[in-house]
Design goal:
Blueprint: H1 3-35, H2 64-68
Length: 125
């Protein structure tokens, strides 16, 4: 995709979104005007005092002696050494499809001979 095409598509998308937002705002304003009501005022939130709660206790860190003991390192998993055997390829050639041996019968011709077309009659005049 060329850079010019990409810029054009982006402009269309941006202008489309801006036009949609403008239509939405105009629609909302027209609905409010049609209802005849002033925009409702939202009351300020009232602060609710939370009851004093005891903080959750945090467990104490382990003693230094336990922290210094080495942990057991996980043993690495050995990689498989044998290679997978290749899939055998069939060596037989498929048998050819036999051709039909009988010849098709010829299409029979019309049994009736066509009738002769009469000569055109000269116009009377």
């Amino acid at each position: 995709m060329s850079l010019h095409r990409k810029i054009t598509l982006n402009r269309r998308r941006i202008y489309g979104l801006a036009a949609g937002a403008a239509l939405l705002a105009a629609g909302t304003a027209s609905v409010a005007a049609a209802s005849g009501s002033a925009p409702a005022k939202v009351p300020a939130p009232v602060e609710v005092s939370a009851p004093d709660e005891a903080p959750t206790p945090v467990p104490a860190p382990a003693p230094a002696e336990e922290a210094s003991t080495p942990t057991e390192a996980p043993t690495p998993v050995p990689a498989p050494t044998e290679e997978p055997s290749p899939v055998p390829v069939p060596t037989e050639e498929p048998s050819p499809v036999p051709a039909p041996t009988e010849e098709p019968s010829p299409v029979p011709g019309p049994a009736e001979e066509p009738s002769a077309v009469p000569a055109p009659v000269p116009p009377r005049g």
